[in-house]
Amino acid sequence: MGNTVIELKGVSKRFGDYDALINVSLTVSEGALLTLLGPSGCGKTTCLRLIAGITAPDEGEIWLNEELAAGPARSLPPEQRRVGMVFQDYALFPHLSVADNVAFGLRGSRAEKRARVAELLALVGLQGLESQMPYLLSGGQQQRVALARALAPEPDILLLDEPFSNLDTALRVQVRGEVREILRRTGKTAVFVTHDQEEALSLSDRVAVIFDGRLHQVGTPEQIYNQPASAQVAAFVGEANFLPADASGARASSPLGELALIKPMRGEVRVLIRPERVHLDTHGEGVLGEVLWREYYGSRQRIAVSLPDASTLIASTDTQISVERGDRVKVSVFGPLLAFSAVESTVPLPQ
Ligand SMILES: Nc1ncnc2c1ncn2[C@@H]1O[C@H](COP(=O)(O)OP(=O)(O)OP(=O)(O)O)[C@@H](O)[C@H]1O
Ligand SMILES: [Mg+2]
Fold first, then answer.
1. By CB count within 10 A, which of 118, 123, 319, 331 is most buried?
2. What is the pLDDT of residues 325-339, one digit of tens each?
3. What's the pTM value of the predicted model, to 2 decimals?
């Protein structure tokens, strides 16, 4: 990846005595898509508003294209930041046509504007809808108009605040794929906000996990999922089992027997076991467990099993294996696994 386009250095923001963001530092390189992932109220929108210049930080600095945009003695106005924003509710102007919505931030002659609007509508797949009014469009079409409007003044940076949350599941998957493709084609640097972990993992180059106003981890989707920095991050991103175990270096003894650990640990730990790492078998190797319940999803199923020590594990398996409540199954896990100290794992997990 290229140059750093966005950099937050130790940024804090308070509302009254409430700390919305605490000492957040992160960078986004040119053409990359960074997702801010976190529960409601964790400070995601605040972070976008700080980058856009709608709000000023209390502490720290924001650098855009290697220029200081916000700091103790400086605040570049929003219109000079070359940042476009797509809001969660699209915020289209209801009394303006599609073309006038898209042209809103444009300068130049009427002919120039018309040409640019046509170009943008083609980019987002809405050719010929210039004179349509927003209320006659579907949710997905309105979303694309909002994207075209944000792209119109040719910003370097695009900020997208939960842009797909008003769309139903099928449309959401389609539109987010399209938006990703448009961002790639136009080479924009983007910061995207969601509280949907699947969306964050599937769409991003890098994911920043935020809760309680703090940045807990930044990394590729694989790093965030497979090497979470804490038990809290592990629990927030994807489903997590935490199996109690006693660690002695690279191994831990657990209700599933001896497990190999990725990082050496000592003492009482909780071993992170993702449900797809749990293997269930009606015969064969493993510790004997009992099926507590099963949820069937067609392509996959979730099965809860209780182990001899009464701990419960949730498995996510294909639908080859057919079991019911009360059945006995052999339980084993694919290692090596990550463990966290038992003390850390008792900290309340983010909702
Ligand atoms: N202008 C404001 N005045 C007072 N409090 C604010 C203001 N803006 C945000 N807050 C508070 O700061 C916290 C973070 O808000 P923010 O909107 O950034 O959260 P969010 O992560 O975007 O949440 P959501 O997922 O619900 O959109 C919230 O507790 C919110 O109530
Ligand atoms: Mg928000």
1. 331
2. 999 999 999 889 999
3. 0.89
